[in-house]
Amino acid sequence: MKRKILVVELWGLGDLTFATPVIAAALENDEIHLVGKGHAVELLRPSFPRLRFCAYEAPWTVFQGKYDLWKWKWLELLRLVVRLRKEKYDLVISVRNDPRNHFFMWLVGGRQRVSFVLEGIRRFLDTDRLFLTRRLRRRDSKQHKVEDWQQLGAEIGLQGDSSAGTELDHTRYRTGRVDAIFEGVEKPVICLHAGARIAVRRWPEEYFINIVKRLRKEFDFHLIVIPEPCTVPSRLAEVADSFVTDLPVGGLVDLIGRVDLMLCNDSAPGHIAACLGRPSITFFGPSDPDWFRPWGDGHKVIIRDICPWRPCFDYCKFSEPHCMTKLMPETVWPEVEQHIRTLIASGELTGAFLKSDVTAGPAFV
Fold first, then answer.
1. Gyration radius (Cα) of the chain, Å
2. Domains (range + CATH), the chain
3. Is the pLDDT of residue 82 over 90?
């Protein structure tokens, strides 16, 4: 019997990519709605045209001021709840073990409300019993968020392949602007996305420049740079072959789907690359790669436990994020080079990356 399911994913683009295995599986037999930020439509609609969207910027998902209750748009929230209650959902699902999410799910009033419960000392709240009808516990406290969605999909009896990896169909995002960026480009393409929504996740620009200069000595490629919007003008323009700004979400998916390798911070572009089957090298700082690394094979996480407070999940105690600013390019360069040579040796990257006057070196496996 066809069910009406509401997926609650109110956070960022990367979080939305983690939900794609369950969304794809559920769409095979059920009617699926998703409530999330406005960018959810741009990211998911081309790949999942039958997915229905409800845009909402939840005030408890902002990085700062989330508990300034007097600033919340209460009338907007009330209208949303009334609208969603009229849908009479069979299932409301989320992987966030967050009482605010669970309260929202309870307000929506689905016949079954399924999510993960709080663990450890935070369980004294015990709001899960009030707000959820089915309470899940992770098989492994360190399992990836994709595995959370896979576990939830199995729990609600999806008949499709909810154990599949994340996936988007980049051919459905084609844009003339990205066509123009790739026009005449014959070399393998590396995309460097230097941004991240949270500032403490950004590796310093001068470190990226250092890595690019080292890459130029060893490999032959066309470099597309997408800077963090708040850092424009950017020194990265000096080392770029193409410098791209103001790219919408759909254009970003289109561009990443055409590159050979992604360099980025712990941010959405790495997860989009994973959805599109593109290998990546990701620089991690305050977050935990066990939960949030790009999903699948072909991805390299560059990380060091420099700071004793890591992972702080973006709430840095210092004037600068030492886990990023002390992650020096000369220290991580051997890992970057080794990963690229491994991808070439395995055939995931074309041998055209190698300069004719540079020996291939050992195949790292």
1. 21
2. 4-155 (3.40.50.2000), 170-353 (3.40.50.2000)
3. yes
